[in-house]
Amino acid sequence: MSEKKIMLGNEAIARGAFEAGVKVSAAYPGTPSTEISENIVKYPEIYAEWAPNEKVAMEVAIGASISGVRAMASMKHVGVNVAADPLYTVSYCGVNGGLVLVAADDPGLYSSQNEQDTRCVARAAMVPVLEPSDSQEAKDFMKYAFDLSEKYDTPVILRTTTRLSHSQGLVTLEERCEPVDAEYERNPAKYVMMPGNAKHRHVYVEQRLKDMAEDGCTMPINKVEMKDTKIGFITSGIAYQYVKEACPDASVLKLGMVHPLPRKLIEDFASKVETLYIFEELEPVFEEQIKSWGIPCIGKEIFTVQGEYSANMLRKAVLKEEVVSKAPAQVPARPPILCPGCPHRSVFSVLNKLKIHAAGDIGCYTLGAVAPLSVVDTTICMGASISTLHGMEKAKGKDYIKNWVAVIGDSTFMHTGVNSLINMVYNQGTGTVMILDNSTTGMTGHQDHAATGKTLMGQEVPAISIPDLCRSLGIKNVVEVSAFDTAALERIVKEEVAKDEVSVIITKAPCVLLKKQKATKVCRPLPEKCKKCGMCLRPGCPALTKNADGTISIDETMCNGCGLCAGICKFDAIEQVEV
């Protein structure tokens, strides 16, 4: 009897890769995709790595595929933007060993800066897309994707979403297959995409999509469930689960391959139902194509292009039912906030005091935008802080950015910040860049990177020196300082922003949530010395609260003993004690 196990969608994707015989996996961590690689590394048969960014991860997977083995790359939807350059071209090249890109979209914006739909990217790149609807399909579709990749000589995208990635379901486990490595044969016409070769490959790609659309009509992952023909739905992914919950008696065409669309299958299904609804999260990808074929259907007229879908949405829009929601529990508001003892809070408290604006980046430190720190003014995408500040200077002049810095984390700096810093140096900028080095990729759950000295597979390796890397670019002013030495940090910031050349300030202190970090001190208030000025509350540490009499209390179960509050207090009304 086959073993069954409850798995997260991401865990099931990793299992599918294992069972499919994948040999190489590369990724950059990004919610909601991170757990895929963290589970893949549990299978020693697969070489797995954290790449510095998604473009590199995609290129590593492409190289492995060309050599003849099954390979994959994993990333969140905005990471697909970073990987777009190799993705669009490998669509022309095709594969040798199977090649799958797992792209995790984020309807509802739980952890992202936009709500883009990877299916739109896939259409432009002319790459087929599979979309599972539960954990079992996540595993099965992953295996099927490699079969399709090798059959049609194409990279394949497995699209998932936050809800699927982080939901659990029962999965039947199977043995790993060990496909024979494909022989590598030199073939510049296929793998060297100069214009003359690319023209011929483009013709191939267009025919490939037509063949897949035709074959999609009989693919087992595209399923017709005929029931009551008064209402029919065309849907896919997690949205299928909502259809089955809200309208169990309706007829359904569940698409497992969401690009290219199986036109004949869709036309046949549409002809058998009275009213056809297209139920797809985010963009009207199905709807626009189906309407262009002259098939009457209802979609975004009644369904939104924003956020996650739900069974209640169907009940209200299609069944016209009154949906009575229970009143939410009355709980205190919990806005996102930096952890107690976070070194970013210390840095931002200094910048706030100096009235310095920060061009921000993607990471925990984005929370420097909210009160009470209110320092970060911009956040665009990974690595954009440095380029944004440089653009401001070129637009308004050197004096304009004398009260500005770029703020970027160590992992994000290694991701795409290095290129931006090179640009600032090359084009004679004068900005000040602050690299907040907390020795991890904090926001996605403490993954290692090239500057931490440890790989995804746990191997100890030489760590890239961020200070030496900056100096190698010709930057004379590279200063390291403890994030919690606020007096020194204040002095350094004043000095560096006043200079008319590029400077880098590296604030060093490990993330307090790292397993190896253990608090050895706590801060305790001395009420008899307290002047009730409230200065210690300004950085917004959640361990501190104001008492009715104006003094403060410190929750020792939350306090990490960083000493920021003690350093701010001018009256020695807070002490650090050993625990």
Describe the structure.
It is built from 20 helices and 23 strands. The strands form six sheets. The protein has a seven-stranded mixed beta sheet. Strands 15-14-16-17-19-18 form a six-stranded parallel beta sheet, sandwiched between helices. The chain has a four-stranded mixed beta sheet with strand order 9-11-10-13, with helices on both faces. Strand 10 (228-236), helix 11 (237-246) and strand 11 form a beta-alpha-beta unit. Helix 1 (9-20) runs parallel beside helix 7 (135-152), helix 11 crosses helix 14 and helix 16 packs parallel to helix 17 (410-426).
How far from one another are the termini?
A: 53 Å
Mean pLDDT: 94
Quantity of strands, as a count: 23
Trace the largest sheet across and list its strands: 3-2-4-5-7-6-12
* Major beta-sheet overview: 7 strands, mixed
Give me the Rg, rounded.
Answer: 27 Å
Helix-strand layout with pairing:
Elements: E1 4-8, H1 9-20, E2 24-27, H2 34-40, E3 47-50, H3 54-67, E4 71-76, H4 77-82, H5 84-93, E5 99-105, H6 118-125, E6 129-130, H7 135-152, E7 156-161, H8 162-165, E8 168-172, H9 188-191, H10 195-215, E9 223-225, E10 228-236, H11 237-246, E11 250-255, E12 257-259, H12 263-271, E13 275-279, H13 285-292, H14 311-317, H15 343-353, E14 357-359, E15 376-378, H16 384-396, E16 404-409, H17 410-426, E17 432-437, H18 466-472, E18 477-482, H19 486-497, E19 503-508, E20 521-525, E21 544-546, E22 552-554, H20 564-568, E23 574-578
Parallel strand pairs: 2-3, 2-4, 4-5, 5-7, 6-7, 10-11, 10-13, 14-15, 14-16, 16-17, 17-19, 18-19
Antiparallel strand pairs: 1-8, 6-12, 9-11, 20-23, 21-22
Helix pairs in contact: 1-2, 1-7, 3-5, 11-14, 15-19, 16-17
